[in-house]
Automatic annotation (TrEMBL):
Its EC number is 2.7.13.3. SUPFAM superfamilies: Homodimeric domain of signal transducing histidine kinase, PYP-like sensor domain (PAS domain). It catalyses: ATP + protein L-histidine = ADP + protein N-phospho-L-histidine. This is histidine kinase. Signal peptide: none annotated.
Length: 606
């Protein structure tokens, strides 16, 4: 409430007025207000400073404890009531921070301190205290905390290493990304350690340079390798700047470091690729070059420079005009036309066949022309590539000749070549199929092996198709014979060899080589039957032969004893002659029967 007016002639009144004026000024400057509560009659007094904080006019309404509580923010009201109750009942100091809602609806933060006045019995009779508007301070602290939270969040989520290092190289602070880079399991493991202990010794001078520059107030960057706490080597790129205190003195070094291991690896890879490319383009007989719109050489490999040097009869270099007349006008105008076509925007290929002036040998070349455009699609030059295809042309001619020979062999051979899928369906058949089995190539490819194989041989064929799939690429099964149906309806005996070529991209199937062995099998069967008949004849006649032979052997043994008289010897010789004649008759009979068994074509003529 405003102080009552005082008579100006009163010295004490003037002092009081001055004190009140000073108090108002102090309250205004300090954003303060003092208040009192008379607990005896619950009357309340607010100074002008309190009304100013609450954005009220002192005359607007009577001041009461209820009005005071009503001015407290609803969320803080219970806290304010409880605090006052604790002050009165528990004797704790009155010290409260809370929010007030002003008459204009604004929210202000205040800090209130008060003293409880008690009577001689210790009963609280009055509370006198002050308000201080700390809104700006609170909001500033809040904003600082928010900034600190944001900065902390940024640092915690920053994918690069952020660290603070003391002037003597001790790690003071590092974010999680940095801890991960140096392979520290926790910040305690890294903080307080010398950063230099993590640097690859060969690169230590680079790190020391940027650290020393930062201590001199100079921002600088460098690349170096680190060895993590678990032994992993990484390439790092670090930028160091000085950190100063309020007086401007440099107190530490702030570094932003990123892992560039992949970048360095890619750079090294690009260097290798570039060197390899240079080695490749300079080590080939192909000609590679590019020109600008004035037909001047921009870049070329060694092979082209050698050719251009020969044509212009002086060493070639970048900037030389590639149109030279030393090779003749026809050559000059032909190549001029090629270059003009390319520089007009056409991409094309041409073929050149000529006698090389350098080697005096025939050369075949395939030449490519492609326009070079800038970002605005404007043609700025021409890229040219001349490939030597002389060997390719020669090989193509040889291949064509070999193909004709192979075709002739396949068409006129007695073997049939088929390429089958795993189900026995034909993908290719050689022309000799017509000679061997009577079918055309088209007819054969419409049939499956199971359509022509004798039903009794089907299980054997299925087993072989299964077995060949288990073989490695290029391996074959042993030859096997099957009965196959000729187009004329007859059954032919074929000898088949299966080879696994499924994984060969040029064939992609099972190769079946087969030929007709019907005549051979028939002859073999006839021979076996003849051999059996001969064995039967030999077995039968062997008993007939043994009788005269035994007599002959017995008579000879008897004569050798020299115990016979002359007459007995004469008779024995007669018996011997009779047995010999009998044996001759038996042999003649065997020959006659053998001739009846063996057909004329198997008889050996004398």
């Amino acid at each position: 409430m405003n102080p009552p007016s005082q008579k100006p002639n009163s010295s004490a009144s003037r002092k009081e007025i001055n004190y009140q004026r000073i108090l108002r000024e102090m309250e205004s400057l300090g954003k303060l207000g003092h208040w009192e509560i008379n607990l005896t009659n619950t009357s309340v007094h607010w100074s002008d400073g309190v009304f100013a904080i609450l954005e009220m006019e002192p005359s607007d309404m009577p001041v009461s404890l209820e009005l005071g509580y009503h001015s407290v923010h609803p969320d803080d009201r219970e806290k304010a009531k409880q605090h006052l109750e604790d002050v009165l009942t528990k004797g704790i100091p009155y010290n409260l921070e809370c929010r007030l809602v002003t008459a204009k609806g604004n929210i202000k933060y205040i800090h209130s301190q008060a003293e409880v006045i008690r009577d001689e019995k210790g009963v609280a009779i009055q509370i006198a205290g002050i308000f201080q508007d700390i809104t700006e301070k609170t909001e500033s602290i809040f904003h600082l905390k928010q900034q600190e939270i944001r900065l902390s969040s940024i640092l915690q989520s920053e994918p690069e290493c952020v660290k603070v290092v003391s002037p003597d190289g001790i790690l003071i602070e590092m974010n999680p990304a940095g801890l991960s880079m140096i392979e520290a399991d926790s910040s305690e493991e890294a903080i307080g350690q010398k950063v230099e202990s993590l640097i690859e010794p060969a690169d230590l001078k680079f790190y020391q340079t940027i650290h020393e520059n930062a201590l001199k107030g100079i921002k600088s960057s460098a690349r170096f390798r680190i060895i993590g706490m678990k032994g992993t080597e990484r390439w790092m790129e670090s930028t160091a700047v000085p950190l100063t205190d309020q007086t401007g003195n440099i107190v530490s070094v702030l570094s932003l470091t990123r892992d560039i291991s992949e970048k360095v690896t890619n750079e090294e890879k690009l260097i290798r690729i570039k060197r390899n490319q240079e080695a490749l383009i300079n080590g080939t007989s192909d000609l590679i070059w590019s020109i600008d719109t004035n037909f001047c050489l921009v870049a070329a490999n060694k092979s082209f420079l050698d050719v251009l040097s020969y044509l212009q009869q002086v060493p070639a270099k970048e900037g030389d005009n590639v149109l030279v007349k030393t090779a003749g006008e026809e050559f000059y105008y032909k190549w001029k036309e090629y270059y003009e076509r390319g520089l007009s925007g056409e991409s094309f290929t041409t073929y050149e066949n000529f006698i090389s002036p350098i080697t005096n040998e025939e050369e075949h070349r395939e030449v490519y022309f492609n326009p070079i455009r800038n970002v605005d699609e404007k043609i700025t030059g021409l890229a040219c590539f001349s490939k030597d295809i002389s060997i390719l042309i020669k090989k193509s001619k040889e291949l064509l000749l070999n193909e004709k020979r192979f075709r002739a062999l396949v068409e006129n051979g007695t073997d049939v070549v088929m390429i089958l899928n795993p189900r026995g369906q034909g993908k290719y058949v050689s022309p000799s199929i017509t000679k061997v089995m009577g079918y055309t190539e088209e007819e054969a490819l419409q049939l499956s092996l199971f359509d022509v194989i004798h039903p009794d041989d089907t299980p054997k064929l299925k087993k072989r198709l299964f077995e060949v799939l288990a073989l490695p690429l290029g391996a074959s099964l042993q030859s096997e014979t099957f009965r196959a149906k000729h187009k004329d309806g007859s059954w032919r005996i074929v000898e088949s060899t299966l080879t696994n070529m499924l994984s060969d991209e040029t064939i992609g199937g099972i190769v079946d080589n087969f030929h007709d062995v019907t005549d051979r099998e028939t002859q073999m069967e006839a021979i076996q039957m003849q051999n059996q008949k001969l064995r039967n004849i030999a077995w039968t006649q062997s008993h007939v032969v043994r009788s005269p032979l035994a007599r002959i052997m017995g008579i000879i043994e008897l004569i050798r004893t020299r115990s016979l008289t002359k007459e007995e010897e004469e008779r024995s010789l007669g018996y011997l002659l009779d047995s010999a004649n009998e044996l001759d008759d038996v042999i003649g009979d065997i020959v006659r029967k053998s001739q009846e068994v063996i057909p004329p074509e198997f008889n050996v003529k004398p």
